[in-house]
Amino acid sequence: MAGLSAANKLFKSTNSKQLFELCVVEGGTRIGGRINSSEFCGDRIELGATWIHGIQGSPVYKIAQQSALLHSHQPWERMDGFFSHKHITVAEGGYELNPSFVRPISTLFKNLLKFIQGEPVDEDGLSSEILKRCWSNCGPGNLSVGSFLKEGLEAYWGFVKDQKPVDGVGNWSRKSLEEAVFAMRERAYRAYSAVDDLGTLDYNAESAYEIFPGEEITIAGGYSRVIDSLASVLPVGTIQLGRIVEKIEWQPGGCSQESRKGNGDGSMPVKLHFSDGSSLSADHVIVTVSLGVLKRGIRQDCNMFIPPLPSPKIQAISRLGYGLVDKVFLQLSSHYQETNDFEFPFLQMVFHPPDSELRDPRIPRWMRGGSSLYPIYCNSRVILSWFTGQEALEKSQDGSEDSGEGKQVKFDNVLRSRWGSDPLFLGSYSYVAVGSSGDDIDALAEPLPQNSSNLDSPRSQLQVLFAGEATHRTHYSTTHGAYLSGIREANRLLKHYNCDVV
Ligand SMILES: Cc1cc2nc3c(=O)[nH]c(=O)nc-3n(C[C@H](O)[C@H](O)[C@H](O)COP(=O)(O)OP(=O)(O)OC[C@H]3O[C@@H](n4cnc5c(N)ncnc54)[C@H](O)[C@@H]3O)c2cc1C
């Protein structure tokens, strides 16, 4: 998304002047990166980016609208919105929980989150007392979202004295059940932010994160077609697939006389070395690989940049968080549908904690890492779960598909994403980890060489630019963040060459 939005912008802005000779090099065999629409059992599904997070002001929504991607005859994931199903909450052991039990804990969680995100909290006496107590107990410093939420639950128990046992829930005590419902909400938020442990998610950064207002929707025609639309303006041959960049050679001191004479590419200061031994020289390169690929790239056994990146950039790359979330699609067997006349609900799952002896060994590990299972639209036989972090990685590595040979439900087909083990991504999206901040995002976005105004030619300046979701201070982790970062870097180059920037 970032690379193609930059290329699209540069091409459209300068086509008539032929200012740039553009080339997009992509290591994979398709364009789109973490946007990857696919099909499963006749339905259109998304293996990566799924939602337009808020349509008002979203550039992705605008492209989808202009390219007529908002309607389709083929059924698509979440075509009926997110809250279309009957929600039920079931605790391990098969106990359906009464909504009146679940609601107060869910409300508590939502209010704590709203407070963290700097949004207005539903006004009631209990919430404000709880928040006051949390705030005084946590104090400033390196506060994490996880520790604040933990304080919130403790404070809740300090105020709410109802200890009555809950009927019809087997061995579950009221407190353990409340804790497990809260943990379910935490798992849902872990999937949203791609964080393995909410204790590593920075508290302060959450309120700086911006979301566009308005509805959240999926794209009927498929997210990948937004990418196709951006790519469609580029002349044939501009995008080169299967070109894995191994090294990026740049010249911090500007283009030396030797290199001007020596490399046969005029005075181009940057050289890309590909895995097949070939190379390509350029005046400017916009690097849009994921933060996961950059994290590997700065390792000493990899050294993607020659010479290595300056230390502020290395520190920013090391400190920022990059998480893993994966999706698994399961097709219910036709037998299941014939013998069950009810619709598969939006199933919220409440599990015993990791150290509990009451854990049912038949529940697969990956499922415990998710918070819910639900059909991709009402009455669909395709059931979806998102799972996060360590569980996702373990599933990525062992390659097994133990996706639910439970006694009651059989699945005919399984499809899952593998963002963690794919060397072109090494994870899903970035977050601000405890110990990092928005300043690290800005440091990552800084072009190289730094302080280059003293370098002789404009071609020696802005040799290596950085775009991609992880470089957008307020919209990181999203497709629109990636898009906007690509536009930002294209504009930087256009300005550099005194072109009009729109
Ligand atoms: C499961 C999942 C769900 C998501 N859900 C949403 C959502 O609902 N809404 C939302 O807005 N966002 C979502 N996202 C995030 C969104 O997909 C990304 O933020 C965005 O697509 C990133 O775009 P990018 O251009 O920054 O990076 P990428 O898409 O990663 O593009 C980088 C490109 O670089 C290529 N590359 C990597 N290494 C090399 C190399 N060495 N040489 C050459 N090429 C290389 C890659 O193949 C890739 O095509 C989700 C992501 C995932 C994984």
UniProtKB/TrEMBL annotation:
Residues 1-494 form the Amine oxidase domain. Keywords: Cytoplasm, FAD, Flavoprotein, Oxidoreductase. Pfam families: Amino_oxidase. SUPFAM superfamilies: FAD-linked reductases, C-terminal domain, FAD/NAD(P)-binding domain. InterPro entries: Amino_oxidase, FAD/NAD-bd_sf, Flavin_monoamine_oxidase. One of its GO terms (cellular component) is cytoplasm. It is found in: Cytoplasm. GO terms for molecular function: polyamine oxidase activity. Its cofactor is FAD. Belongs to the flavin monoamine oxidase family. This is Polyamine oxidase 5.
